[in-house]
Amino acid sequence: MANIAVALLVLPLLQVAIGEHNIQDYTRSFEKKECDMYHGKWVYDNSYPLYGSSQCNFIGKEFACQRNGRPDRLYLKYRWQPSACNLPRFDGLDFLKRFRNKQIMFVGDSLSLNQWQSLTCMLHTATPHSEYKLQRIGGLSTFTTTEYNVSVKFMWNAFLVDIVHKRYGRVLTLDKVDAEKEWDGIDVLIFNTWHWWQHTGRKQPWDFIQEGKHMQKDMDRLVAYEKGLMTWARWVDTNVDPEKTKVFFQGVSPDHSNGSYWPGNNNGKDCKGETKPMLAPGYPNRQHPGELVLKKVLHTMTKPLHLLNVTRLSQQRKDAHPSVYGLGGHRGMDCSHWCLAGLPDTWNQLLYAELISK
Ligand SMILES: *[C@@H]1O[C@H](CO)[C@@H](O)[C@H](O)[C@H]1NC(C)=O
Ligand SMILES: *[C@@H]1O[C@H](CO)[C@@H](O)[C@H](O)[C@H]1NC(C)=O
Fold first, then answer.
1. pLDDT tens for each residue of 143-191
2. Structure pTM?
3. Is 334 an annotated catalytic residue?
4. Which of 41, 159, 209, 318 might form a disulfide with 256, Cβ 3.0–4.6 angstroms?
5. 3-state secondary structure the chain
6. Where are the domains of the chain?
């Protein structure tokens, strides 16, 4: 009996020891030379999640699935395991020490907000008794830990290129970046854009698309996405000093609004009622169309750009969306964003691994 009790106690610790490096144990950096961190699989790990959403009351209602009554918890228990190496376990205290007096900014849409909230919660729960400040001015939200003076910011920017308001309507300008002075002097910039390029009808926030002098009502959205991204890429190549600023792109975050995209979907419609990841090896067997465009654009860049290649590993997580446990209940079905705690914590673990790797 006693042996069983001991075994039960030790087992979760053992899993951590085997599957993840606690970087403080033996080294302060992470070797990823020969390792594609994004090639791997989801494994059950009883030591997850990394925090409880009730520990961070600033997590928005739209992401706080457990607080909103989501009954199942299995989706919280998966850890990303690369095939060729172990990821460092996220160490919030180590993160704060490394980034003392530094500023990190997520620039993008609500998927950036999703990852920003995850990171701020991971840092807060690492130092639960330290003071922090949360401030929101217009589209800019800033989380600052007082003791370490680390600022983690989120700046709303759905397309990265400009929307100009003209007398005759709103113009999405494919060849002008919507750069803000707030981007200056940031140590780590993490960009993202994808979802808003798909929106039509009432959710489309522009009336015309402009490219140079050419103005049109609409165009192929993947082509527009590529042109917009290309403009952003040229902006980074021209304006970012890699000695001062590390630039990341938060890869395309897939949605699960259409059940025909994954095999064995039990209700044929969307992510509602999904409680398990899609663990079949080889899934997905095609690259996401947005990811293909992104890959093409990133290949043209001359400055070092780190891609958080989260698309594929997130495609397997049909279970990790709020569905009816987000903002809107049954009327606001959400198969695009992700519960917190949850999948974006893994994105931040990958960001951390990229930041500390040699
Ligand atoms: C992301 O990683 C997957 C798996 O390793 C790979 O197949 C894909 O090409 C990568 N995507 C990009 C844009 O590099
Ligand atoms: C806090 O960090 C910011 C840069 O992120 C810096 O400008 C400021 O001087 C720092 N404050 C202190 C008290 O060190």
1. 999 999 999 999 999 999 999 999 999 999 999 998 888 898 999 999 9
2. 0.91
3. yes
4. 318
5. CHHHHHHHHHHHHHHHHHHEECHHHHCCCECCCCCCCCCEEEEECCCCCCCCHHHCCCCCCCCCCCCCCCCCCHHHHEEEEECCCCEECCCHHHHHHHCCCCEEEEEECHHHHHHHHHHHHHHHHHCCCCCEEEEEECCEEEEEECCCCEEEEEEECCCCEEEEEECCEEEEEEEEECCCHHHCCCCEEEECCCHHHHCCHHHCCCCEEEECCEEECCCCHHHHHHHHHHHHHHHHHHHCCCCCCEEEEECCCCCCCCHHHCCCCCCCCCCCCCCCCCCCCCCCCCCCHHHHHHHHHHHCCCCCCEEECCHHHHHCCCCCCCEEEEEEHHHEEECCCCCCCCHHHHHHHHHHHHHHEC
6. 12-357
